[in-house]
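Field reference: sequence -> structure
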Amino acid sequence: MSSKTTNSKSKTNRHSLVNFPEEIDEKNHIKVYGETSYENQIAVLSHYLHNSSEKLTKKRKEEIVGAIREFLDRKQSRQMLNIEELTDEEIWAAAESPTQYNLFEEFFNVPFPGPKEPRFTFIDLFAGIGGFRIAMQNLGGKCVYSSEFDVKAQESYLANYGEMPFGDITKTTTKQYIPKKFDVLCAGFPCQAFSLAGKRLGFNDETRGTLFFEIEDILRKHQPKAIFLENVKGLAIHDKGRTLKTILEHLEDAGYDVVPPQIVNAMDFGVPQHRERIYILGFRKSLHVDINKFKYPEPQTTGANRPKFKDVMEKTVPSVKYYLSDVYVETLKRHRSRHEAAGHGFGYEIIDINGVANAIVVGGMGRERNLVIDKRLTDFTPVTNIKGEVNRDGIRRMTPREWARLQGFPDDFRIVVADASAYKQFGNSVAVPAIQATAQQMLNMIQ
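Structure field:
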């Protein structure tokens, strides 16, 4: 089956690589180019361009040439080069000097490029939108491999770091791209299986809980100097502590001295969000790190100097689409009344803008428990289909940008997906400042 060549997107839409139309076969399967999908080829290409000092096998070089040829075909960039037919040698020349031909601006014209003179290397597993990556890059780290299954999260990752994450980490073909050597493994591995709000199936959850063992497999094979894992607070008490005990035993058996895990609250590190997460850190035994000397960072913001939600509020009045309808407000009130009558604590919550937000999480509950009153709106004309009218009390949802700030993402982080996806991505992310402060303590032990 031959591939179709498409016209390049407008230059104003830099983040459209993952939106190139795929050819669909008669069974509605997305077309596969050779052994890998187009997204995987972009992952191969972007990882190479950012890590071009990597020694390549003949097979890997051929794979990169194929990925670039496909990429150039889709962008019709051969015309830009004034070359009718590109040879493999010419393609490889473009790969070795990617900025010379300005063919790969999607990979280099990004807000968060890696450091030119890195102090250490790391890989970003279950990467989401790169909360770990920003924290580690701020400390001088270079990401040499990333993996993320969600397509929309891949799109955000590409737009901000110039790198398409590889997909399903359970596949051998995905893990084969992990460099042989790197210093730190970072992973905010899937937390739904251990969440207090979910069914808490743990390792009995065949799709999510067992993904921890993919981390173990990588650790055994690559033996990085250190590991930094993040998960929900509920992991600490799941199955009466047996799940966490199993994780720690497996890390120990994989060759790591593990620091006693600690629950860290993001609001202690400069963001106005009450978000408790468990951190698990370890060091390769051969380094002989005295884990008893490791100390988690002291809270950086407490009491009067703790940020307030109003510090991250939109400076201008948000779109009317974020304001709730009067019908929806009444529905939320009835819903909370039913739960209160039944002795439950669920329901919407309006936070004090002079206080901190509740944890932002995926799903409607994360938004409904973080409503705010913002009476700056003057035009109540709806821009979406709603029942009733826009409420006159100023009750609104937080915006995706406010959620980004609650997680410590800089304002130049590009939000290139629809609101629904943005809420999901920031709700699933790590709190950047808390990760960074803890990672600094970790790096002090190995550098």
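Note: The domain at 120-301+428-446 is CATH 3.40.50.150 (Rossmann fold).
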